[in-house]
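Can't attach files on this board, so I'm pasting raw text. These are the components:
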Amino acid sequence: MDEFYLNRALALAAASVPRGEGGPFGAVVVREGEIIGEAWNQVVASRDPTAHAEVLAIRAACARIDHFHLDGCVLYASSEPCPLCLAAAYWARIARIVYANPRAAAAAAGFCDHDLYEEFRAPPEARRLPVQHLALPDAAAPFAAWTRLAQRKLY
Amino acid sequence: MDEFYLNRALALAAASVPRGEGGPFGAVVVREGEIIGEAWNQVVASRDPTAHAEVLAIRAACARIDHFHLDGCVLYASSEPCPLCLAAAYWARIARIVYANPRAAAAAAGFCDHDLYEEFRAPPEARRLPVQHLALPDAAAPFAAWTRLAQRKLY
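---
Top answer:
Structure tokens for the assembled complex are below.
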């Protein structure tokens, strides 16, 4: 069945291209044999750099089941998920990811997924995006309020 | 000025906690001294596992300037951005990130940001989330359509 859902992700990707809404990427979230979320890249159309196919498919699936976790679900992606989409899958508790095109194929088409994985592998001080720690007196306030909260919900 | 904007991110984080909309995190996007996007974590309220403060602040800033890139902008985050938010910052072309609480503080409050960084550091075969490549005959179709497209827009 993996082939069926992965072909669906590929079909969504290919069909989206002429509409110019974003890159050539599609994704499908499946729970117990049912597609509960599917999407294609919408970065350009929605002016949202996080509107990757996998992110949107995960958000659609969560909206469908009205929960922020997708335990046991499988994510099918036309291309290997970039770090944004991989991290989204972790937060969503996706159980397994299946993809059709390796990151090199996306790189050949002009997308920086591979570079982004390299940035994550590099030590922070060697990355091109500086991430700086600034200690402030009130830094602990949010966590202090959080631990005082009786009904805090982890995700 | 970093202190001013970072304190704003902390204030958003602390103020959001009693509302129970998500974790105790806030973020602000600044362009040339002006706040163009700000947000707090909404994972629980919106049932969206990607509704982290930084992601929402980036999306708000992009909506404000009607573009999917935030060149030259600085992202201020109450806590060190997790891999999802770091990747979102890369895709948005954020120029610099400043944060107040290191990932260990988030871990102490029960959030898995640190674990997630460890997963990214681990070789794919050692990660707890399997990411599987499945070769299919039609895999190349989306990229083939993309390279044929005259007005393709990279992001």
